[in-house]
Structures are given as structure tokens and as C-alpha cells.
Specification:
Layout (H helix, E strand, L loop, with lengths): L12 H10 L4 E3 L13 H8 L4 E7 L13 E5 L1 H9 L17 E9 H4 L26 E5 L4 E7 L3 E8 L2 E6 L9 E7 L2 E4 L20 E5 L4 E4 L4 E6 L4 E8 L4 H19 L21 H27 L6 E2 L5 E2 L14 E3 L56 H8 L2 H16 L9
Antiparallel strand pairs: 1-12, 1-17, 2-3, 2-4, 4-5, 5-14, 6-10, 6-13, 7-12, 7-14, 8-11, 8-13, 9-10, 15-16
Length: about 450
Amino acid sequence: MAAPNPTNKPFSPEEIQGILHHLQQPAVFIHMTRGWPVLRWTAEHLCGCLGDKLVRFRLGRKKETNTPLFETQCVYVEATLGHFLSWTHEQAGADVGPFFEYPKSEYWAYADYKYIATVFQDQPAMFEDVKWSDFGFEGRNGRESTLWIGTAGANTPCHLDSYGFNLVLQVEGRKRWHLFPPGDTASLYPTRIPYEESSVFSQVDVLHPDLRRFPAFQGAGAHVVTLQPGQVLFVPRHWWHYVESLDPITVSVNSWIELEVDDVMRVSEAVTKAVVCALKRAPSDDNRDDWLNPTEEGAASHNENMRYVNLALQVVARRRREELTRDLRDPRPVKRDSRGQIKTDGDPPFVVPFGPHLVSVHRRAETWGVTADDPEVSWDSAPESRRSDGCSPGLSQRGSENASDGGDKPPNPTITTNDLLGCLVHPDVIARVTQLLMERHAGSERRAVPF
């Protein structure tokens, strides 16, 4: 069989849409980006494109602490890509700008989550270098994508994204992804502090876990893959992921794809934001931590947050009225999948075409700690898909740091504001509150006794 070329991709846009609709696990697409101009976007190339434009970098220390390094704990500098490259290459006497205070031997740097539409607002032609239309998303390009530039060790704390699914193109260098299915949520000890809309963080350092504090993590099932340049990783909805750069310089481009079911999640996120802001903005002795992620522009007022709650509920109600009207035109029973799409009983079962051009990301037998043999995906390796079923045992209980290790006195932990929030905005609790609010808003007869 002839090797794929820019005009002969392994899958057509229509075929990929079918694949994405049925994929329930992470997978890597091979050879789908051949011919994409964005593959020229190395850090050196981008440096020439951006010139003296300042970019914000997040810097973290290279050390093992058994706790995640959240973005609130990092330092930030604004520098040009020229400064960044000189610092990365450790060129003697070169101008490294604000990086001069941070030895490369002690720090990694990450220009993460940069909207391409903002970075290249003066060069809109560059948007066309990203061709998500080859994946069946006509009209989607760099304008709806984000850019990530980092050094070895740069990482994103383990988290899940509340909305949609994710397509990630690796451009330069390699990144290692540790992914966990939604059923592992309780084992990952979710938290909303630091708060960032649409991101639920894990309290666990998944590479160096503290198993005394987080014993349930031993049961989590990590799916691990090293993403190579030119490859595209599909991250399913609500899959947890920790991402780390492996090579001296890495560049990635991603796009989050919206789904109909995101409407309900927007209600959940609006409720979460209202509760977190209400409690964290209240003066108290234990409310002095840096709780708002730097990606957030600021804490909204309670009036504004309640307006978001009501707007989100209105969108869900309108969508459900539209679905009801559409479904009433067809007297047959209607079944919908997790994405809100109608399932048809008469459709033949879809078989995901795993093979040399689509590779499933395996669950690793050892689910925590670093190993030297994490898999890398190449076009001629096509492991069979595996299914990992998990069931969240419900609310996870966080071990108290104040508990006594010995002696006759029983531990007497103090519940903090963050402990209270951990329960109030736990995903299981927020899901139930969202359901109750939607029932109340719709005037459902199944509504509980008025509050």
C-alpha cells in the first residue's frame, strides 16, 4: 500500500467524524496532518513570526514534592521567543531578558494556553495553517485553537476539562500524556481550588503520588502515550490528563470541540463558580490562600454569577424544547448517546478501524510512578484496543494533614473553608444540584419539596 500523502489521507473527513462519534477511549491519529503548514511552527519559526512580541511564560521549579505544582504556585515572566530560545540554548552572553533570574538547571518554562487568534491577531493568514477541516470540522482552523510552547519538564497539572473533547497536534518535540477515564474521578481526589472555569484539578501528583494521603489512587488506571510530531491525540470527554514535555523544546496546537451536552455542564460550571466565589471571597482566618487560577480574569460578583446560572438554565430549557419538538415528529422511541445524538436501533454496529493510522492508547499495568518503557506511538505499531471499565465509589474522603501518627489522643482535625468547598462542589454533588435546578426551572412535577 502506498504511503499516505497530503491529497490521500488515511481517512476522509466523513470517516473521521464517524470514528470520533464512536471512540470511547484516547487514540492517536497517524498521517492525518501531512501537508499541514502548521507543522513548520517550530519555536524557531514562531520566533521569526512574532519578533519582539511579548509572550507570558509560566516557570516552575524542577523538584519532586509529592504534590501537584498548580499554576498559582508558579512564577510568571513576559519575554520574547528570542529570549526564550537563548535561555533554552544557554548561549553565553546572549540576551535572555527576564529569564536571567531563573537558572535553566532549576526551572522549566511554559507558554501555555495561548489563543492563536490573540497571538497572531495581526497575522490572520496564519490561522489557515491549521486544517481541522481534515477531521470533518469545516471552517475550524487556528482561530479556534491554542498554542503551547515549553521546555523539558514543563507540565500541566492533572485535570479534566468540563466541556467537549480535545484534539491535540504535536508539532515539535515529544510530550507524554497520562490519561485516566471518568470512572477514576474519586481515585483522583478532585478539587476546584485553585478555581478555573471548566477545569477540575486532581490533588494527586500522578507521577509521585502520596499514597498515605491518597490511597485510592492506587486503583486508578493510567493510559499512557508519548505523542510524536505530526500525530494527533484524541482526548475523550471528561478524561483526566497530566501532560509533560520530554524534549528541550516542545510545541503543540490543540482545539476543544464543543458538544451538545456541554449545555448541561455550563449549568454545573455556573453553579460551581457561584459557590466557590461566594465562600472564597468571604473574610475568614483560613481564607488567605491564592485560590483563583491566573487564567481567570478575576472573581465575579454574586449577582453576575447568579445571572450566569440563570442564563445557562435558559439555554438548557430551550435546547430541550427543541429536542422535544423534533422528537414528537417521529413516533418511534428515541434513544440518545452521551453526546446527545439520537441512536438508531437499525444502524449496524460501528467498528472503530484501529490499525497503522489509528492507534488506541493502552491502560498501563503499573498505574503510578515513572517507568522507562512508556509507549511511543509509531505508524507501524497498532495494538488492539482495550476497554477499561470503572465505577466511581462516590465522594472521596481526604485524609487530614493534622491527624496524629501516634499517642493516646485521637486526631482532632479542623475543617477548613477549602474542605467544605471540596464537598459542596464535588462533581457528584454538583451533578445532583444541576439536576434539581433544571427540574425546578422547568417546573417539573418530579421536583422535590420546595426549599
